[in-house]
């Protein structure tokens, strides 16, 4: 009645996404509180394990990338002097990328890693009052921060043993000598720099999954890093389609033709309706591609319930 032309629905959705991200993204006070928490923990860890020369504390995950929600955990890895052995093994493993497709080699590497972790635990038993590093850390937390801890648990019988605790209102997960976390955070920072739509989509979809309790991998949900790679893959392939159709320049993710509302609906359409999880895997290497999961059948990856697992 006022003569104004209503904005298209996708533009309205775009504006809603922008407003939502400005509300949910980390605020300066939140960032300061978390950084202070990390510094306090670093001091405690160094005091527990013999100083900075014997203990290196590194933040990874959403805390390192700045993609955390108000309820997100702080992920921390502690590297002991044996970290160099892990680094050397990782470099050796990277020399031959073809070995990644060999399931027997993967299983052997996993077995050797587990045996080495047990050896490390034995050494800590000698030097740490009969306690593993996880137990020593838990003991130090209980002694130093008892009044401010509302939750403390040592989880050792998992693929990645860790200490989980809640300090005031912050949830922290700590593991030891686990490679890959900081490197994954750096990789995601590079994607964030080259793909402007990536950051708002991550916040919206992380919150969407969290509200529906679909963000816990051990419950069959989609973890944060997997979700981020799914979004990266979608943007890579969308950019390729737009470039091939002449709608944008190659890798120009910041094109004016980009509408977050359209991109979000496209994401849901791809992974909710069109994507064939049984036959297709996802790769984000070399500007992204899809591959056939059937090629993994010969090495035992493509059988039983794994037919329905997302391959990235």
From TrEMBL:
GO terms for molecular function: metal ion binding; mRNA binding; poly(A) RNA polymerase activity. Keywords: Magnesium, Metal-binding. The keyword Coiled coil does not apply. It holds the Pfam family PAP_assoc. Residues 13-192 form the Poly(A) RNA polymerase mitochondrial-like central palm domain. CDD domains: NT_PAP_TUTase. Residues 260-300 form the PAP-associated domain. InterPro entries: MTPAP-like_central, NT_sf, PAP_assoc, Trf4-like. One of its GO terms (biological process) is RNA 3'-end processing. It comes from the Eukaryota. The keyword Nucleotidyltransferase does not apply. GO terms for cellular component: nucleolus; TRAMP complex. This is Polymerase nucleotidyl transferase domain-containing protein. It comes from Proboscia inermis.
């Amino acid at each position: 009645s006022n003569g104004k032309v209503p904005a298209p629905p996708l533009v309205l959705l775009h504006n809603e996404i922008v407003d939502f991200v400005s509300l949910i993204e980390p605020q300066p006070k939140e960032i300061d509180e978390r950084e202070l928490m990390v510094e306090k923990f670093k001091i405690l860890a160094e005091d527990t394990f013999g100083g900075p020369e014997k203990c290196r504390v590194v933040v990874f995950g959403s805390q390192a990338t700045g993609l955390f929600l108000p309820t997100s955990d702080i992920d921390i890895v502690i590297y002991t002097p044996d970290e160099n052995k892990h680094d050397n093994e990782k470099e050796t493993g990277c020399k031959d990328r073809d070995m990644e497709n060999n399931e027997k080699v993967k299983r052997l590497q996993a077995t050797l890693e587990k045996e080495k972790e047990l050896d490390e635990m034995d050494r800590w038993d000698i030097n740490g009052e009969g306690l593993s590093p996880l137990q020593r850390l838990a003991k130090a937390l209980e002694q130093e921060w008892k009044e401010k801890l509302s939750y403390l648990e040592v989880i050792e019988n998992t693929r990645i043993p860790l200490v989980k605790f809640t300090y005031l209102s912050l949830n922290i997960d700590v593991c030891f000598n686990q490679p890959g976390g900081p490197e994954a955070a750096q990789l995601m920072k590079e994607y964030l720099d080259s793909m402007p739509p990536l950051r708002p989509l991550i916040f919206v979809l992380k919150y969407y999954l969290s509200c529906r309790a679909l963000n816990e991998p051990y419950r069959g949900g989609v973890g944060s890093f997997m979700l981020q790679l799914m979004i990266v893959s979608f943007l890579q392939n969308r950019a390729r389609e737009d470039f091939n159709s002449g709608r944008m320049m190659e890798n120009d993710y910041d094109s004016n033709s980009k509408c977050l509302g359209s991109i979000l609906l496209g994401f849901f359409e791809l992974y909710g309706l069109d994507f064939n999880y049984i036959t297709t895997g996802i790769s984000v290497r070399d500007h992204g591609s899809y591959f056939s999961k059937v090629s993994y059948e010969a090495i035992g990856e493509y059988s039983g319930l794994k037919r329905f697992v997302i391959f990235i």
